[in-house]
Design brief:
By secondary structure, the chain is an all-alpha fold. The chain has one domain (20-73). The chain is built from two helices and no strands.
Amino acid sequence: MSDQTSNGGMEAPAHKAPRTEFYVYFAIIFAAALPLAFLAWVLSVLKNGNLSNKGPIARAWSQARIITPMIFSA
């Protein structure tokens, strides 16, 4: 007969779905990053003379995706 309790109850924690708090922080950070991303995009257009692939909304979105998980991992 095999021992089914040898693991000791040390199972890996289940992945949680993002909560409302995460989305609230994400929205705040996105809103704060949007004007700065727009300014950086305008300066990039003026400097290079062409429209880049990544617009201001995409820039702000990626910044919010980077910063928000840092807050929750601290």
